[in-house]
Structure formats: structure tokens, C-alpha cells
Amino acid sequence: MLRKFLLGAALVLAPLAHADIVIGQSVPTTGLVAGTGKALALGASLYFSRVNANGGIHGEPINHVVRDDGYDPQRTVANTRELIDKEGALALVSYYGTATMTELEKTKVLDNAGIPLVGVHSGADALRTPGSSLFVFHTRASYRQEIDRIVNLLAGNLGVTRIAVVAQQDAYGQAGYGALKDALAKRKLALVGEAWYDRKSGDTTKAANELAKLNPEAVVLITVSRPAATFVKQFRAGGGTAQLYGLSPIQFEEVIQAVGKKQAHGLAISEVLPYPRNEQLRFVREFQQDAAAVLRDGSTPSYAVMEGYLSARLVVEALKRAGKNPTRSAVYNALTSLKRYDLGGFIVDFGDKKRTGSNFVELTMISPTGTLTR
Q1: Model confidence, pTM
Q2: Among 127, 257, 309, 316, which residue is least crowded by beta carbons within 10 Å?
Q3: Exposed, middle or buried, 353 (CB in 10 Å: 0-12/13-18/19+)?
């Protein structure tokens, strides 16, 4: 299923039309996390395509321009400068990664251009604390909130005390690692083991062997999708029996695609958006309807596709509120007016100077059939 809908991401790699309303996006469409990057781009394109099919914004179509950064912070900065200076983007949408955003914030590119960015595939506190850019509007809960939920279940409800961690050696891994240590300290606990892997190679062999020998009661995975898949397989092959809990950057479809349903079964993942198959929510039903225009085989796209779609919806709402001939400052001001904005069972709140619009977190687990239980 994942392979099929990622093919649709090719639709966003060329401009939809020559238009005055340019929305830029820099994501990895090559490399270790290309699957998630393409999915974020596809999600945004789904909603922009719907808007264009219905006449655009005040009669103007949206030109969604996507640049590949390969999960490289320097390329993210270069892409963003190009989107602002050469493409004339009014807003940016659904970026990927803690390390990339950390570098982007250091450059003050967004602040200097006065351009809003809606949606970042990262829950790092460093991107949300006082001093971070006010031009970044986050659509997902933080890693700290995800980890608090996991630790509360393990230590608070299940009585698990011997908890270890495997983490990516970069800003993402450090963010999650720090949050995990803090969450354990609140309960007078400490990590019983830790292992790290290189973000560029994604090789988890050493980490899996070390933690399999330690065999704690639970391991928290601060990883991305492909390293999560290889870690699970290697850890189990090494005799590890611990419960495995991952964070939202892990896309469960990519794990299944990499190691199969049998190996993936039992991996728990915290999620920061509603389940893409939860048709009780109007937001999800509308998402499925728009996705069906591209995914004609009836498959349901992933959380990452939904994340890009959500960010695009918020950008469009801001563009509508900004009026005809919108400016970057008008779009920015419109975003700040989204106070408890209900998209149909999912609420985003940027009112009262908030820059984290949602605190939604739920725990899921990959079932033997390859679906998620919640």
C-alpha cells in the first residue's frame, strides 16, 4: 500500500499551475527517510489539488513547489532560501526533521523573510521553547508528551521499571533521550541501558545486539522507520523479549514493508494524529475522500500523508482569511487567528500566541494482520 501511494507523490514534484499563490515545501524525497518525506508532500498536494479543482483561493490556483533536501540540514536551508527568494512563496508547509529545523532556525531565514511555516515533522522541545521562531506553527504534540504517555503506561500502569532506549545519534535522538530521562526521573527511575545508531547509515546492528544481551523489560525506540524495522528484527533474532515502544516518526507501514507483518507484530507506536481509518471523524472522512482521487485502488494512506494534508488545510484556511492579494504577513496574522479551529473532530488552536496547535497523543500497536490496534 505504501509503495502505491508514494508513487503518487510524483504529482507534487512539478508545479500544479502558473500561479501567484506559491506554497513551498522542503522534505527528503531521497535517502533514509524518503518514504515519509514523499508522504508529507503527497498529503499537502492532495488538499491543494482539491482547492485548485474548485477554483483556487479567491480565483487564484495554488502552486505547490517541492524541493528535496535528502534529510540534510544545509540543503533544507538552501531550499528554503530558494523557495522564498526565487519562487516567491507566501507560506511554507510540512517540513521534516529535528536536525533540519534546528539548522533552519539558527539561520533566522523564516524570521527575516516574515514567512510562516505550518507543520514540522518533529516534536523536539528545542523547536517550541521560548526563543524559537514565532513563524513556525506546529501541528503535532511534542516528543515529551509522547514519551510521558509511554512511560505512564509502562511504569504507572504495567509496573515496568527496567526500561532501555535505542536512539538516533542526532538532534532528534537527543531530544527524545532527554525527554525519556526526565519522564523516568519523575517516577524515581533511570534508564537501565542505552544504545545509539548513526543517522546517515541507519545501521542498528550493534545497538540491537547490545540491548538484546541486556534484555530489559521494555525498550523505547527514538528512531525513524527503517532503522526501527531493522532494530526490531535484529533485537528479536538476538533473543530480546522486551516490549518495544516507538515514537510517531516511525511509520508502521514502512516497518511492515521492511520486515513483514510477523516481525512487526507487537511494536507499539505513539501517534499524534487520529487513525487514518477512523471514519467517525469528519476530518478523517474528508481526508479519505480527497485521497481517493489519487489512490484509486481503495487503499488508505498513512499518518504522514495525513500530516501533510492537515498542514495544507491550515495554510488554505489562513489564505482565505488573508483576503485577496494576500501577503506573508497577512497569512501569518490569519494563522494566529485560528483559535480552537475545528477541522471536523480534530481541533487545532493557535490562539493566545500558541505555536503548538495540538496536544493529541494516543498509543497504538501493530497487529498480526498489519493494522493498528488502539
Answers
A1: 0.92
A2: 257
A3: exposed
Per-residue pLDDT tens digits for 201-253: 999 999 999 999 999 999 999 999 999 999 999 999 999 999 999 999 999 99
The CATH superfamily assigned to 143-271 is: Response regulator (3.40.50.2300)
Distance CA 133, CA 13 (A): 28
The residues facing 95 across adjacent strands are 120
Reported as a single tens digit per residue, the pLDDT across 266-303 is 999 999 999 998 999 999 999 999 998 777 665 668 99
The CATH number of the domain covering residues in 2-140+277-348: 3.40.50.2300
The DSSP 8-state label assigned to residue 127 in this structure reads: G
Closest CA to 118 of 44, 63, 57, 35: 44
DSSP 167-220: EEESHHHHHHHHHHHHHHHHTT---SEEEEEETTT---HHHHHHHHHH--SEEE
